[in-house]
Amino acid sequence: MNILIMGGPGAGKGTMSEKIIKKYGILHISTGDIFRSEMNAKTELGLLAKSYIDKGMLVPDDVTNAMVKSYLMNSHHASGYLLDGYPRTLAQAVALNEVIKGTRMEIDKVIALDLPFDVLADRVTGRRICKKCQSIYHITNTPPKKEGICDVCGEPLVQRKDDTIESLSVRVQEYIKNTAPVLDYYREKGYLVTINANQSIDDVWADVQKALED
Ligand code: AMP
Q1: For domain 2-115+166-213, is the CATH number 3.30.390.30?
Q2: What pTM, to 2 d.p., does this model score?
Q3: Is 187 considered catalytic here?
């Protein structure tokens, strides 16, 4: 099964992605996670990405497309893959189509997590992540057992630099401007399933599984 998952900042892409890969055993390719790990390792790609990401802007298409193409071509995904946070622009969707068309990497479903913008701010500014294992928490909705410490690996939790109110408003505008045409593109192809992300995690997860197994 080859799946794309889309959604604005704080829509729950990361949380649903963790559940999807665990249940269906497919390869997880998250462009945000890849950029963050490159940034931590201070690679050339990481430094370039950081100059965009910290401001809430999208990393340029040519850089992002080349990176995803290389992951798809060089990694093992016999049971399928989940692309998380990509494509985010129409140019990326077209580039992805060039890579996968006519292969067994063709997309089966596109999950779009839909969340009213007034709910986003609280979700995003309260989010904390583990820099080591990437587990995601929220200071009030899904807090760790011990404040500021990851339940999974015991490392300190951090706030992403782009999870501030200033970056968020740029990211929301970028999302509306760039990603709406991508949703239309997949809607026309008949792949798109829109899910109400303004529900409990369990209810969103139930809807996601239903969409994937339909
Ligand atoms: P995410 O973790 O998916 O919210 O991504 C964090 C940030 O990484 C985004 O705000 C962008 O700056 C960058 N990013 C992730 N995926 C993409 C993409 N497909 N195209 C361009 N930039 C991206």
Answers
A1: no
A2: 0.82
A3: no
